[in-house]
Amino acid sequence: MLPFNHRVCCQNPSNLQWNSKRIACVPAADVQESGNVPPIVSNAENSMPTQNDDSSHPLRTVLLCGLVLVILLGIGWWVFFKQPAALQIAQPPAVPGVNEALTDAGRLELWQDKERGVGLLENHKYASAIEPLSQLSAALPNDPLGPRDSVIALLLAMETNPATADAARAAVAELENVQPDAVATSILAAKVLAQSGDAAAAIGRLQQATQSSPQELTLWFELGQLQRDSPKPDVRRQATASFQRAFELAPDNLAVLWNLLQSQADSQQADVVETMRSARPLVEPIAPQATEAGVDLLREIDDALRAADVGRTDDLYQHAFIVANVIKAHPFARRDGLRASPHPLAYVLQDFTPEFYANWTKPQPAMDDPGDETRIVVNFAESPALPQLPLQAAVVDFVVADFDLDERSDLIVLLENRIEVYAGGTQAAPWTKICETPVPPGMQHLLTADLDEDVTVDATPETVRCHNTDLDVVVYGTSGAVIFENVLDSTTKLRSLVSIEQTQVFAQTKNISAAVLFDVDHDALLDLVLAGDAGIQVWQNRSGLKFQLLQTLGVDEETPLPQAMAAVDWDRDIDVDVIMAGEKSPAVEILRNHRHGRFSRESLGEEFSQVSPAVALAVLDADGNGSWDIVTAGTSGVTLIRTATLDAGVVREIGVTQISQTAADGVLVWDYDNDGRSDLLAWNRQGLEIFRGEGSGEFLLEEEIIETPLTEIRQCRVDDVNADGDLDLLIATSQGIAIYDNQGGNQNHWLNIRLLAEQEKGGASPDPGGRVNYHGIGSLLELRRGDQYIPQIVSGQVTHFGLGPQPQVERVRIVWANGFPQNIMAPEADAHICDQKLLLGSCPYLYTWNGEEFVFATDLCWAAPLGLKFADDVYAPSRAWEYLKVDGDQLQPRDGSYQLQVTEELWEAAYFDRISLIAIDHPADVDVFTNEKVGPASMAEHKIHTVRNPRSPVAAHDKRGHDLLSDLSVIDGHFAKPFEQRIKQGLVEDHYLELDLGDLSGAKQIMLYLTGWVYPTDTSLNIRLSRNDQLPSPQSPSLWVPDAEGTWQQTMPYTGFPGGKTKTIAINISDAFLTDDFRLRLATNMEFYWDAVFVTTDEPPAEIRTTELTLQSADLHYRGYSEIEHPTGYGPDRYLYGRLQKDFSWPPMRGHFTRYGDVSELLTATDDRMAIIGSGDEMTLKFALPPNAPPLGWKRDFVMHNVGWDKDANLNTAFGQDVAPLPFNAMSGYPYPDDERYPLTPANRAYLLKYQTRVQDWNQFWRVVPGISPR
């Protein structure tokens, strides 16, 4: 935002020329004569909107400038000198010596350089910002903006270009000439020194600063961090004193607390006892979440104090270390960390000193900028093409949606005692009532959404763009809430609303003031939050539209009932929260999502406390800074609360604006003119107001935009009723629903997106995957092009974007409600897009060098999932070790070694305790196989199987008699699919693969070899299936054979199965047969695809020679993501190593990963000291070649032996969003019980301090600059 009100315009706007994006008045003569005005970096579609103010008079303008200047100077002085350094985003104090000889043209050019440089800095383009900011430093050496912002740009550019270090040091020297004693100068100077490799000088600089500013928290905390990371033990010991001083200055800061605890424990200082006593009240608010993560924080502290009392110092320090590690992973600690150690961009100066503006008014936009191509004329008027809906009774509420799946807008109308549904109206066919149902008295509001995932495909595909599910209805008010199912009669094709009986507790909930639908528990079914006389209740959809109470939060005088709710991932931590507004203070609160069905009612912070009481709210990003803003409506009018999101869980209010002082009953967000900027609509009984958004957080009232405005307004909605690309206005009154056609909005381009949580595999028909609710309610859509960022939360069947005059869109990113990201690249403008969710598997990948390129070999750790649930409280077993075959033709020497790439390309963490490579030399006419089986250790015991004489079955078919033998004869990538009906991802109909092995009479040993892959369910799907009595749970393969009567009998209840991508398993079936009939069935309802089947009989083991190869090096680094290739048929996805996408693709996980660099010592022994890698990471492994080549007539294959685990970040996985708690080899299961814990031996503590130091950058995924609002 500009630091001054930009409605104060230049005195001669007729002489001004406009550049795009930056608000910059440029005298036309100067441009024509000199041609040297610095270019404004932007696209035309990102132009700042113009404004108009008919009340502006020259004298009034001057007075207003002076008044604003005086006020903001006072505020700026107070913020800069009185606030902690963490919040210094203020303007500098007056500095003498500004060049008084500057001409107006010269000032204008410098002002443009400032706007350009600061804008580039805030948009992460650090290298590009250096030039204009350096020019400011040279031209205005006594103004701190140029030197300080130059230092920041150079410092941040050093992260990717160390060559800027010298320039950064020079810029620091210039800054010290202007502001030698400022805290910001000391902090930035120390950061530059540390980043350029001179940590000792950085420590000295901060020590000097603490002497002159001993009360500054940031100085002590930054100093402590540098001292803690020093390689010198005596310097590291000094860190404790620095953190102790910081804790004295900020005794409620969790980031300072955990750093102090860790430092005291590491240096074994007795003062840790007092720190632990101080910690107990601080950690009480986060203790419940820590308990869910497997650590009882309060018990750890109590145990530490007891250990200190009896002199068990080793136990004391171990408990302190555990407490510190748990605290530092919590979002509150990360929030406090940004307060103690702000991001460098928090120190950016936004404007020059006041002297720069002496006798000169900086340029401001004219009201109606003819150069702004997004500005179009729009009017709303009744149209014959959109018939009105007169009614005999007053409308209480209504919703516009496609109720009957004909791709036209319908009206679901709540009247005093009933619901009526009207099918889409046109000039040729007015609104037609298609069903109605009575409701109890006192119902006041409607919600519509698909609550039962009943997929329907219309019989006329030429009119239907997508598969779809119909909308069910929730109605609520003083009589409680009622759930209605939308039922289609298969015979008559007529629809009806059928009330679904709920529990007695549900029925007793009355006087409901607010409600919202979203997927609370991430099981792909929408749940319900109600605010009523019983409190705020969270109701879980258990399938069949039956709801079960999960949690109740009480209400009282201090915490009254909210009047409005909106579901949104408020703090960008990949779970949906609820923003609430009420008529009592605090007017705006949050129902914070702690996952697993747990919420807490919290204040948004003291800075939000001044918001006026409200009866309605909406959530938007009014200024495009990647942080959600709130607009509220109430008796005091319409208010906008702007925010900045600094990190996951850290949201700050940065401005409150009174948009209108007219009392309002409701407010909604739309883009009526399709300019890509959010507009507002507010109303009360007497009328409505439409506000045009400027894209900067400002809104202008539009006058005379609607023809014959109505009174007695009950409700307003917007929808593209006539499907012409712009949003029409629908108004409910006491006489019916009036529809106003948007006339002109589609002069700008637009895009409608309909999300469908379907998946499509090979040639199969799309079907619901079951991992996200069908319409993606609660998902985030982010439209990006150039510097423009337009986010929206999916709240219905269709999400509408305005695009402005330029149709090009670079991409739309979907962050699905379960956290999975997906991109729509270069979508076509002026179109309806149906986008299906692409569902991915899990586990790290292995790539090998085949002599020409790295190729995908297999996936790893499939038998070792952490926190995977089969049901709510039932966890999958985890087997840490595996032995995987690597074909010799896929692994060839490269530069004198065998090179492997282990990558993590999905949303998970992988924990590798050991990786070894074994060369298997064997005769060329022998194939070797390992037992790549998911199953217990007793069944999956490692063994090298040698095969000389494989025997194919004589017949193979599925349960419908389809012949599958040709698909199973050889390992060739052509997979057999032995089922037809798919229920959910990973769950299919009961089916079997029947094999006739021929005559095996007399065979004493029969080995069955199966090559295939599995498309699995996941934690969320398993939980959902376990709750639904109508659906089966996944059943692992079992083996059946015929008895003497020909009846099929189960002889092996569990055979094990190939895990993940294509693998081969060996099953000893020697004792499986009951007769000389050697037929068998492999029965399951899991989603398996088979490539090859064969058996061996009485085959003696062939000679092999094994050599364990030496690990020469292991380098951990960031790589990115391979391109995914989706093959036709039924094979698994393939990954193209040579085609790379570098951008961070998945939301960050909490906790500490292994730092980049050499990790060899972590992989050579099974010792619980692991290389922990996250999304986008790669380990390059080099193994020494064996001393001898294989003998003549032999060949070489390999076995990769791993000890490790994999944790999926699925929101229902136990601790899925956290690296901790760490697994260890002796654990009995995961999560492990309270009496087990990761062994904190001295060696393991040293390992954690040395290696586990890296966190995933929140901004890598969200691309939001901490604490800064775009300009």
Explain what the structure shows:
The radius of gyration is 33 Å and the shape is globular. The strands form 19 sheets. Strands 53, 54, 55, 56, 57, 58, 60 and 61 form an eight-stranded antiparallel β-sheet that branches. Strands 44-43-48-68-63-66 form a six-stranded antiparallel β-sheet, with no helix packed on it. By secondary structure, it is α+β, with helices and mostly antiparallel strands. Helix 9 runs antiparallel to helix 10. The chain contains 20 helices and 69 strands. Among the domains are: 250-340, no CATH class; 751-836, Sandwich (Immunoglobulin-like); 840-920 and 1103-1270, no CATH class; 949-1098, Jelly Rolls. A hairpin with a 2-residue loop joins strand 37 (780-785) and strand 38. The longest helix has 25 residues, at 58-82.
What order do the helices and strands come in, and which of them pair?
Layout: E1 16-18, E2 25-27, H1 28-34, H2 58-82, H3 104-122, H4 126-139, H5 145-157, H6 165-178, H7 183-195, H8 199-212, H9 217-228, H10 233-249, H11 254-266, H12 272-283, H13 287-292, H14 297-309, H15 313-328, H16 331-340, E3 379-381, E4 389-390, E5 397-401, E6 410-414, E7 418-423, E8 432-438, E9 443-449, E10 455-456, E11 468-469, E12 472-477, E13 480-488, E14 495-500, H17 504-508, E15 514-518, E16 527-532, E17 535-541, E18 547-553, E19 564-568, E20 577-581, E21 588-593, E22 599-603, E23 616-620, E24 629-634, E25 637-647, E26 650-660, E27 666-670, E28 679-684, E29 687-693, E30 699-702, E31 715-719, E32 728-733, E33 736-743, E34 749-756, E35 758-759, E36 767-768, E37 780-785, E38 788-793, E39 799-804, E40 811-815, E41 821-825, E42 831-836, E43 845-849, E44 854-859, E45 869-871, E46 874-875, E47 881-886, E48 897-903, E49 908-923, E50 927-929, E51 933-934, E52 945-947, E53 955-957, E54 982-984, E55 987-996, E56 1006-1015, H18 1019-1027, E57 1038-1042, E58 1048-1052, E59 1057-1058, E60 1063-1068, E61 1079-1097, E62 1105-1108, ...
Parallel strand pairs: 34-42
Antiparallel strand pairs: 1-2, 3-33, 4-33, 5-6, 6-7, 7-8, 9-12, 10-11, 12-13, 13-14, 15-16, 16-17, 17-18, 19-20, 20-21, 21-22, 23-24, 24-25, 25-26, 27-28, 28-29, 29-30, 31-32, 32-33, 34-39, 35-36, 37-38, 37-40, 40-41, 43-44, 43-48, 45-46, 47-69, 48-68, 49-62, 49-67, 49-69, 50-52, 51-59, 53-55, ...
Helix pairs in contact: 3-4, 3-5, 4-5, 5-6, 5-7, 6-7, 7-8, 7-9, 8-9, 9-10, 10-11, 11-12, 11-15, 11-16, 12-14, 12-15, 14-15
